[in-house]
From TrEMBL:
This is Ig-like domain-containing protein. The keyword Iron-sulfur does not apply. InterPro entries: Adhesion_GPCR_A, Cys-rich_flank_reg_C, Ig-like_dom, Ig-like_dom_sf, Ig-like_fold, Ig_sub, Leu-rich_rpt, Leu-rich_rpt_typical-subtyp. It comes from Ranitomeya imitator. The lineage of its organism: Eukaryota, Metazoa, Chordata, Craniata, Vertebrata. Belongs to the G-protein coupled receptor 2 family. Adhesion G-protein coupled receptor (ADGR) subfamily. Keywords: Disulfide bond, Leucine-rich repeat, Receptor, Repeat, Signal. Residues 241-339 form the Ig-like domain. Gene3D superfamilies: Immunoglobulins, Ribonuclease Inhibitor. The keyword Glycoprotein does not apply.
Length: 379
C-alpha cells in the first residue's frame, strides 16, 4: 500500500471488527468516487476487469467467508444505485445463519447458478425489505419453513433447477407477501405429497411460473396450476424420478478381486428402504464371506442410498445381483450379472474400448470373448 504498513487482522477479532477494518482498507485504496480513466466500450471493459480481479474483494471473501459480501455495502450502493445483490455463479456452497445480517436495504438477491446444497435456518434473517429471491440452479434438496424466516416482504421466489422432488407441507408458511413462485426441477414428482401445495396456491392466489410435473409419466409436462387434486395420488406402481445402480453393466472379475456397488434413488417416502439381493436371496453383511452392506443413507433430503462391497470374490459370487427399493407404494429394482473367473484363467492382453455405453476393456480368453467394465477388472 504505497510503502505504508497495513494493519493485520487479529485471529480473535470479532466478525464485526473484521468487516470494519476490511472496509476501511478497501476505501483507503479505492475511494467510492474514484474514476477509472477511459470511456466508451474500452472504459467499461476496464471497469469490469477491475471489478473481477480486485484483491480487496478476494480478501473479504477469504477472511470472512460468505458471512459478508465481496464488496462493502456503501461501495455497492454507489455502483448500482439500488438495493440489488448479484451473487450468481460464485461457487457458493452453503448459506449460514444470518449470512446477510446488516443488509436490510436489499430488495433483490440473485444466488442463481451456485453450488448451494445447505441453507441453515435463519440464513435470510434481516432481509426485511427483500422482494425477490432467486435460488435457481443450485443443489438444494432440503427445504422447510425455518429457512425462509425473516422475509416478510418477499414477493417473488425462484427455486427451479434444484434437486428436490417434493416440498414439505408448510415450506412457505413464513412468506406472507409471496405472490409469485417457480419450483421446476427435473425430479418434481406430482403425487399426494403435493396436495397441500395445490390447495395453498389456490387459497393464497399464488402465481406459479414455468413449473410443470416431471413425474409420474402420466402427468409429465402438465403445468402445476392445471393439475387436479384427484390426479395427485401415491398409488402403485412405484415410479422414481431418479434410480440407478453402479456399476450397471455385466461384471467379469477374477477370484480374489473386490467389487463395490452403489444404489441410489429419489427419497419420496419416509418408509423407503434399499435392500440387496443375489439370485433372489436377500444379502446382509457377512464378514466371513467378505460381504459388507451400508444401509439406507439419506443424502440432502432428496436421495436414499446403500452400498455393497464384495471383497475377496469367490466362484460362489457368480450370479445375478441387484438392489431393490421398497416402499408402501411398491418396489423397483436394478440388477447386474457377475461372472467370476478362476485366478488361473489364461487370457490375452486387454484392449480398451470407450463408447457411448461406457469405458471397457476387452479380454480374449482361450475359448471365449467377453467385455469387462473398467470397475470390475484386473490390470
Amino acid at each position: 500500500m504505497d510503502g505504508k504498513k497495513s494493519k493485520q487482522l487479529k485471529p480473535g477479532m470479532s466478525p464485526e471488527a473484521r468487516i470494519t477494518k476490511l472496509r476501511l482498507a478497501y476505501f483507503w485504496i479505492h475511494p467510492p468516487k474514484r474514476a477509472i480513466t477511459g470511456g466508451g466500450h474500452d472504459g467499461r471493459k476496464r471497469r469490469r476487469n477491475k471489478e473481477k480481479s480486485n484483491p480487496i474483494e478476494k480478501t473479504l471473501v477469504d477472511h470472512l467467508g460468505f458471512y459478508i459480501i465481496d464488496l462493502s455495502t456503501r461501495e455497492f450502493i454507489h455502483r448500482h444505485g439500488s438495493g440489488s445483490r448479484i451473487l450468481n455463479s460464485n461457487k457458493i456452497a452453503e448459506l449460514k445463519n444470518a449470512s446477510f445480517e446488516g443488509l436490510s436495504f436489499l430488495e433483490r438477491l440473485d444466488l442463481r447458478n451456485n453450488l448451494i446444497s445447505t441453507i441453515e435456518p435463519g440464513a435470510f434473517w434481516g432481509l426485511s425489505t427483500l422482494k425477490r429471491l432467486d435460488l435457481a440452479n443450485n443443489r438444494i434438496g432440503c427445504l422447510n419453513a425455518d429457512i425462509f424466516k425473516g422475509l416478510p416482504a418477499l414477493v417473488r421466489l425462484n427455486l427451479s433447477g434444484n434437486l428436490f422432488s417434493s416440498l414439505p407441507q408448510g415450506t412457505f408458511a413464513n412468506l406472507f407477501a409471496l405472490k409469485s413462485l417457480e419450483f421446476q426441477t427435473d425430479y418434481l414428482l406430482c403425487d399426494c405429497n403435493l396436495l397441500w401445495m395445490l390447495r395453498w396456491i389456490k387459497a393464497k392466489n399464488i402465481t406459479v411460473r414455468e413449473t410443470k410435473c416431471s413425474y409420474p409419466k402420466s402427468l409429465q409436462g402438465q403445468p402445476i396450476p392445471a393439475v387436479r387434486a384427484e390426479q395427485l395420488t401415491c398409488d402403485s406402481p412405484l415410479e422414481l424420478p431418479s434410480f440407478y445402480m453402479t456399476p450397471s453393466h455385466r461384471q467379469v472379475v477374477f477370484e480374489g478381486d473386490s467389487l463395490p456397488f452403489q444404489c441410489m434413488a429419489s427419497y419420496i417416502d419416509q418408509d423407503m428402504q434399499v435392500l440387496w439381493y443375489q439370485d433372489g436371496r436377500i444379502v446382509e453383511t457377512d464378514e466371513s464371506q467378505g460381504i459388507f452392506v451400508q444401509k439406507n443413507m439419506i443424502h440432502n433430503c432428496s436421495l436414499i442410498a446403500s452400498a455393497l462391497t464384495i471383497s475377496n470374490i469367490q466362484a460362489g459370487s457368480t450370479g445375478n445381483w441387484g438392489c431393490r427399493v421398497q416402499s408402501r407404494r411398491g418396489n423397483n429394482s436394478r440388477t447386474v450379472d457377475i461372472v467370476v473367473l478362476e485366478s488361473s484363467a489364461q487370457y490375452c492382453p486387454m484392449d480398451r474400448v470407450i463408447n457411448n455405453k461406457g469405458d471397457f476393456r476387452e479380454i480374449f480368453l482361450m475359448r471365449s470373448h467377453v467385455e469387462l467394465p473398467v470397475t470390475g477388472m484386473r490390470e
